[in-house]
Amino acid sequence: MLQDYYELAEEPFGVTPDPRFLYLGTEHREALASLAYGTESNRGFLALIAKPGMGKTSLLYQYLEDLRGRARTAFVFRTDCDSHDFIRHVLIDLGIDVTGKDLPAMHEALNQVLAAEMRAGKRFVLVIDEAQNLEEKVLESIRLLSNFETPWMKLMQIVIAGQPALAEKLSQPSMTQLRQRISLVIRVAPLNRKEINAYIDHRLWVAGCKNSALFTAGARSVIVKHSEGIPRKINNICFNAMSLACALKRKTIEPATVLEVIADLDLDSLLEKPSAATKAREEGSIQVTSTPERPTERKRKWVQDFAPRLVVGGALVLGVVTGVNRREVGAVNTAGQIESEMVQKVPAPSRIPTNLKVTETANEQEPGSIRIVPGQTLYHISVENLGRYDPQILEQIRTLNPWLNDPGHIRAGQKILLPPGAFSAAWAQAPILQNNLSFPLEVGKE
């Protein structure tokens, strides 16, 4: 469906290391040239080290393709094995039957292959991917393979490629002999902004995309910021952004679409952070048996417990300032309700003194940021954090969050900026002191 909608010949941001989609940035070109130079110079051991997702495997495939016809090669990527299985994997890749062979027999079979290639005037290159997973005993066995040599040349060139954990493993004192045999350590750095744009254009072109502006400039800027220049991250973001835009029937991909898929890919938003009560319970200091309250339950509790007290407090203050006799205020029963005679004595909002102070419950200097949790709506967020939800508040929220095109469509995991100040002195004029001091019904709205 994705290919038909965008008129593509194939998927542009696939997960397989297809050499046709390989884009060589400056660092990747230098790495490939170093691999070729080390092999031509007969240096023995080479190491390729880069972060996950940087395209190491794609580089190795291109390196092996460049050696086609000039060298016999073996490629091993299953590195969760012992020394016996490792040699077995090498021989299987060479097409040699290993049935019933023990370790010495397999070494002899490998030696015969090396001698045959030398007589044919060809090199033998062994490439090991994901080498950071190899145990030290297996690495030592690989070092011993370099002893296949003549007085004038190495019979085997070995390339070990892996993540930074490989460098940590090689730096161990027990790995001194192997580390000293490594002639070149080749690194691959992330793509820069210019290369990220060229990378996206290259993969779209190979896939047959006719719309050069499929990703807008703003969308590309977001990808640059969040991908960190790592090709695998770029692929994931671009694929999901295209999928979402296709579902929404959009021919171009805007920044809001990219931000939405980045929020969906953020696994941190799915992790439940333990509350203070949970931590204390785990430490054995207190015991909590109640279940967490849902947002709607917290609002009802706030209305039932806090609102009547606020009304009573406001009424008492007003009574003192305006000369209302305290005895006329009336008693408050256990349910927190105020008797009707008190309500009749409260002055109208127009008579509220100008010097009445209302405690502010939020910082009014700068906006706040919260992360949306499952089940929340913009209405719930506004009422819980700002005390109200009206067109003015909605306009302020949309100004702070330009990506919020549809207030009725927000997703769990997204971050949203809220206007500064949960309450202000002007709140004293709100309906909480009007309509016979009844709390506005919207607060408890589901």
The CATH class of the domain at 26-187, by name, is Alpha Beta
Distance between the amino and carboxyl termini = 38 Å
Structural class estimated from helices and strands: alpha/beta
Strand content: 5-15%
Largest sheet: 5 strands, parallel
Number of helices: 18
Going by CATH, the architecture of the domain at 26-187 would be 3-Layer(aba) Sandwich
According to CATH, the fold-level topology of the domain at 26-187 is Rossmann fold
Order of helices and strands: HHEHEHHEHEHHEHHHHHHHHEHHE
Poorly predicted segments: 285-303, 315-365, 422-446
- Mean pLDDT across residues: 77
Compute the gyration radius: what is it? 34 Å
The strands making up the biggest β-sheet line up spatially as: 2-3-4-1-5
Which percent range fits the helix content? 40-55%
What is the β-strand count?
A: 7
Question: Which geometry do the CA atoms define?
Answer: elongated
What can you tell me about this protein's structure?
The chain is α/β, with parallel strands linked by helices and 446 residues long. 45% of the residues lie in helices and 8% in strands. Helix 6 links the parallel strand 3 (123-128) and strand 4 (157-162). The protein is elongated and about 85 Å long. The relative contact order is 0.09.
